[in-house]
Amino acid sequence: MTHPVLFLLAAVTLVAIPGPNHLYITARSIAEGRRAGIASALGVETGTLLHVTAAAAGLSALIAASATAFGLLRYAGAAYLLYLAFRALRGGNDREEPVMPSSSLGRVYLDGVLVNVFNPKVVLFFLAFLPQFVDHHAGAVPLQIAVLGLVTALLGLGSDVVYALAAGSIGGWLRARPAFRRRQRYATGLVYLGLGAVAAFADTPARRAV
């Protein structure tokens, strides 16, 4: 592993930039509170660890090399986010309170895992980012990728938790407002729809190479 300080600086910068995972965690935390946001963060980073394992085993490269496998992953991720949007939008009507029923923390955690596992951009991230900091002359490349990925996941978890706590505080204030409660599920559903569109239209590796 080369340039550990440079890697840490690059990783901290990347995890601090708001992205789809942050948006998902923020939406969940605003809708269902801090505990749901933190459970989502733990789920998302568990998904990251699964991607790290796949990258270390070489599976990520195989998925990226296959347009069919990459497409299946992309559409599976989009379909799951659309399912979450449907689940958010269908609950209750504008006169009911609470508008959105809270999910169990186990379900919230699993949603976070699946959202990240089915995110094709994470596959491309690990193929483009981590190899830059691997020292091929030092050997044990899978181990180096695993260590770098674990550090990235831990940094990501710290960033995710900050977003979850901040959004949970904002959400508590918003949920006390009747006007927001009536429209809460629409806002959350639109976030999931947007994330689904991002996943569905992620560039395939073949198109990126053109």
Structure description:
This protein is mainly alpha-helical. It has one domain. 79% of the residues lie in helices and 0% in strands. α2 runs antiparallel to α3 (34-57). The longest helix is centred in the last third of the chain and has 35 residues, at 141-175. The chain is globular, with a radius of gyration of 18 Å. Mean pLDDT is 80; it is low at 94-100 and 206-210.
SSE order and pairing:
Layout: H1 4-16, H2 20-32, H3 34-57, H4 59-65, H5 67-90, H6 105-117, H7 120-128, H8 141-175, H9 178-200, H10 205-209
Helix pairs in contact: 1-8, 2-3, 2-8, 2-9, 3-6, 3-7, 3-8, 4-5, 4-7, 5-9
- Report strand %: under 5%
Mean pLDDT reading: 80
Number of strands: 0
Note the gap between the termini: 31 Å
So how many helices?
10
Shape: globular
Q: What portion of residues is helical?
A: over 70%
The Rg value, from CA coordinates, equals 18 Å
Please write the string of helix (H) and strand (E) elements.
Answer: HHHHHHHHHH
Features:
210 residues
Short description:
Helices cover 79% and strands 0% of the residues.
